[in-house]
Prior knowledge:
By secondary structure, this protein is mainly beta. The protein folds into two domains: 11-38 and 55-83 and 179-261, Pnp Oxidase, Chain A; 87-175, no CATH class. Helices cover 5% and strands 44% of the residues. It is built from two helices and 21 strands. It has helices at residues 71-78, 106-109, and strands at residues 11-15, 21-25, 30-34, 39-42, 52-55, 61-66, 81-84, 87-96, 102-103, 121-125, 131-133, 135-136, 145-148, 153-156, 164-173, 177-180, 190-199, 206-217, 220-221, 234-240, 255-261. The strands form five sheets. Strands 1, 2, 3, 6, 17, 18, 19, 20 and 21 form a nine-stranded antiparallel beta sheet that branches. The longest helix has 8 residues, at 71-78. It is elongated, with a radius of gyration of 29 Å.
Amino acid sequence: MNPIVMDGVGTIWFRDEEGNLKYVDEKINSVIFAPQFQWTKVFGGQSGYPFHLTAQDLQDIVTIEVPRYSPALAEITQGSKTKVGPKKMDEMEEGILSNDGYQIKGLEKYNITGIVAESDEVNVKDANGNLKKLERVAATPTVEQYTITSTGLIKSADENKDKVILVTYKWSAESSEATAFDGLRKPKPFKFVHRFELLDDKTRQTVQCQLTIYNAIGGGTTNIGAQRKTPSVNQLQLEVLEGYVSPDNPDGIAAEIVFAYVS
């Protein structure tokens, strides 16, 4: 085939060891497959040239840059675990204690009926930013105390009127997806496919391309940060492992790249 320029990215997907589809993404910045082969030189006698070359172990890698985060990516690259279900969320609000008190805004914002019992904390903030924690009481609060109703209404003594307060509390999210990291985590092997399309400059034919890594294991950096006006980018580094014979891979190869001409 004619030499072609690799100037396009397409879609990537991963399958676990049971063949289940784990992750699909078409918004990728780059995919680079870098097979690596090296020799060790053996010298002897008077010559400055080696008389023998010993092949070193192969260290093929695939690096991928993805500008989005997904719990599935963390599973693939970091060996994390994904948990789906109810979860308690921490919240903080800043407001003013008026004559009517302060109404927690999160109840309406998150469409919840109340906060987690005894999870609330109220601090008065002075002009210099210093915080003074108030004590929760059932009724008749003093200047160093506050009350809170089941609907999130906070009140304190008249001396705290018009003062700035910081309120922290927890609320329950009934539907959530959490990524859990522990100190013993290890990524699991998977199959990786990258499908993309190129153009043969000489014939002007479209070339359908597919990179397949039959047995790989994840690594790299998973970016879960948040920075103003800067998208987070995940740098995945996949280590290519020895392939094994299977109906999907009858030759037991480790990796394959296919260029298919479509008329």
